[in-house]
TrEMBL record:
Gene3D superfamilies the UniProt entry points to: P-loop containing nucleotide triphosphate hydrolases
PROSITE patterns linked: ABC_TRANSPORTER_1, ABC_TRANSPORTER_2
Domain of life per record: Bacteria
Name this protein carries in UniProt: Uncharacterized protein
GO terms under biological process: peptide transport; transmembrane transport
CDD domains per record: ABC_NikE_OppD_transporters (cd03257)
GO terms assigned for molecular function: ATP binding; ATP hydrolysis activity
Coiled-coil spans in chain: none
InterPro entries for this protein: AAA+_ATPase (IPR003593), ABC_transp_ATP-bind (IPR050319), ABC_transporter-like_ATP-bd (IPR003439), ABC_transporter-like_CS (IPR017871), Oligopep_ABC_C (IPR013563), P-loop_NTPase (IPR027417)
């Protein structure tokens, strides 16, 4: 299936993850480790995206930043696994409240972008023009981000001159949506608590009538909350009808549809608060490299797997269905039922990794970062875990970001492959395409280093000379130019665009290997 027909699950735009370094005495400039520097990519639902590169290039940091385990320094990370109405994040209220002033700010940024473009175009070729190009890119990014913040929420309404009534009605819808979601979660919590109480009473040998009598008040509470939910739902429908009428009124504007295509229900993970992000944690999971140190040695397998289920209120701790659910997940991950009361130290490396996988998948996530998930295992066990991950992906329609140094593992498991160098993705394509036609010199060098048992294959191994430059002060222009055998003067001065060289094949290089 072509990429443009697939559903995007995560859209990353200009992501930066910098870590500040403590200033030394007399140092004026604040320095940063630029672990991820301007990363842009889409991750499609149901795919496995492999990520390769040398140690220290920022692969694990990117995985953890996507999960918002680090607060990203800059950029947008849009998540489409849930509707924005389910979370109703605070940043949406802020944008809707200030639509008028934000549109004015956007106009100011566009003026700056135009000035930067004119300055760039007026200069002759040379160092000064290269510097002006960087300033133009910065101005373009600021204007684009401000524009997307607005149009992703209001779409075609962007064409309306006076945004005040639009702001009012959308804000009203937002607030009612927040109330709706709060009530829905409360009903869910009450229901889980009720199930737990029923299980406890059943265990104590109470009759069906006694259980019914004891839980009657809780049932009434749930019924009352459900009635309130219906009222709010009806009010929301009325508000949305009003929005629809407004859309019909403004749809005659020729530019309405042009801006309406930008409207989507994506959630900008980078702007969520810790509490809002907590709600999404169940969707975004991580499988760690070291299966032993990632498991709590004081907890049994059953406790480890059920911990997340209780924290996210899937079950009450007394609910009889909890153990049944945990055993089912263990079976899917190839763990025998009698392991449930054992501790991590009683297992081999492969079994511990299966426990880690079971813990991640118990919450029914949509996106899983597998951070060197098989690197610490024996080769024979690696194949079992990889096949397990592939089976679970098919069954649960999971999406993986698979980080590894091992190109053969990446080739086997991935649908697409991204190659990272010093914090940037330098090449991205389908697995077949990237192994058949490496277009970036760094990818060419990596693939040439794959050992082969075919004695007839006469392949030149490309030796990359020198160490990876420091991510604190990376080289100017293309970061790979200090080790690239094709580098020319432009590579030292201009950052190459990450552009589509062939359909679905993206590369950032001034001298692509076509």
């Amino acid at each position: 299936m072509e990429n443009n027909k697939k559903k995007v699950l995560i859209k990353v735009q200009n992501l930066k993850q910098y870590f500040p370094i403590k200033k030394s005495f007399g140092q004026k400039e604040r320095l940063y480790v630029r672990a991820n520097d301007d990363v842009t990519l889409d991750i499609y639902e149901g795919e496995t995206l492999g990520l390769v590169g040398e140690s220290g290039c920022g692969k694990s940091t990117l995985g953890r930043t996507l999960l918002q385990l680090y607060s990203q320094t800059d950029g947008r990370t849009m998540y489409y696994g849930r509707d924005i109405d389910e979370i109703a994040p605070g940043y949406v209220e802020d944008i809707l409240k200030n639509l008028v002033s934000r549109k004015q700010t956007l106009q100011g940024l566009r003026d700056k972008e135009d000035s930067a473009r004119k300055a760039y175009e007026a200069l002759p070729d040379g160092d000064e023009k290269y510097a002006a190009l960087e300033q133009l890119h910065t101005a373009e990014k600021s204007a684009r981000d401000a524009f997307l913040d607005i149009v992703q929420l209001i779409g075609g309404f962007y064409t309306v001159d006076d945004l005040t009534p639009i702001s009012d009605i959308l804000l009203k819808e937002y607030k009612q949506g927040v109330e709706y979601q709060k009530l829905k979660r409360k009903i869910n919590e009450e229901q889980i608590s009720l199930d737990g109480t029923k299980s406890t009473l059943k265990e104590k040998g109470k009759s069906k009538d006694q259980i019914e009598a004891t839980t009657a008040s809780a049932k009434n509470r749930i019924s009352k909350l459900e009635s309130e939910l219906k009222v709010i739902e009806s009010q929301l429908t009325t508000i949305r009808s009003g929005i629809y009428e407004l859309m019909k009124k403004h749809k005659s504007n020729t530019d309405f549809d042009k801006y309406e295509v930008y409207r989507d229900k994506g959630i900008n993970l980078a702007r969520l608060t810790a509490e809002e992000m907590r709600f999404l944690r169940k969707d975004l999971q991580l499988i760690f490299q070291d299966p032993y140190s990632s498991l709590n040695p004081r907890m049994t397998v059953g406790q480890i797997i059920s911990e997340g289920l209780l924290a996210h209120k899937y079950f009450d701790k007394n609910d009889e269905k909890l153990q049944e659910y945990v055993l089912n997940i263990m079976e899917k991950c190839g763990l025998a039922p009698y392991f449930i009361h054992r501790y991590p130290h009683q297992f081999s490396g492969g079994q511990r990794q299966r426990i880690g996988i079971a813990r991640s998948l118990a919450l029914k996530p949509k996106f899983v970062v597998c951070d060197e998930a098989v690197s610490a295992l024996d080769v024979s066990i690696q194949s079992q875990i990889i096949n397990l991950l592939l089976d679970l992906k098919e069954e649960e329609n999971l999406t993986y970001l698979f980080i590894s140094h091992d190109l053969s593992v990446i080739k086997y498991i991935s649908d697409r492959v991204g190659v990272m160098y010093l914090g940037n993705i330098v090449e991205l394509a389908t697995t077949e395409e990237i192994f058949a036609h490496p277009t970036h010199p760094y990818t060419e060098a990596l693939l040439s280093a794959i050992p082969t048992t075919d004695v007839d294959t006469k392949k030149e191994t490309i030796i990359l000379e020198g160490d990876i430059p420091s991510p604190i002060k990376p080289p100017s222009g293309c970061k790979f130019h200090t080790r690239c055998r094709y580098a020319t003067d432009i590579c030292k001065k201009v950052v190459p665009e990450f552009e589509e060289a062939r359909p679905g094949h993206f590369v950032a290089c001034h001298h692509k290997l076509m």
